[in-house]
Amino acid sequence: QVQLVESGGGLVQAGGSLRLSCAASGNIFSSSTMSWYRQAPGKQRELVAAITSGGSTNYADSVKGRFTISRDNAKNTMVLRMNSLKPEDTAVYYCKAKYYELNYWGKGTLVTVSS
User: Fold this and answer.
1) 19 SS3 class
2) What is the pLDDT of residues 6-30, one digit of tens each?
3) Which one, 15, 30, 54, 60, has least CB within 10 Å?
4) pLDDT digit string (tens) for 55-93?
5) C-alpha torsion angle, residues 106, 5, 68, 27 (rounded to 10)
6) Which of 100, 115, 112, 103 is nearest to 4 (CA)?
């Protein structure tokens, strides 16, 4: 049974920072590509950042230079550091694990950035 639990969301002013964490249970974490997605009200879910099992990363253009994704395979944890937050970053942020053809999702954590 794989479970993903996000934490770290909250309310922050524009220009501020937040650190999101995703804790994974099960034994697939180290072999999975881990990702952060977000979904703003009335919009489709979009990829924010991803990190492969080998540590390669990619980011959405909208967050490049501001967000950093990392993982700790020993702790089954993934982190998204978000700096210089903007009101348009407001969304529910979801953690996803892709293990071969299987995708697992967390329930999300809300990030609200006030102007």
Assistant:
1) strand
2) 999 999 999 999 999 999 998 899 9
3) 54
4) 999 999 999 999 999 999 999 999 999 999 999 999 999
5) -90
6) 103
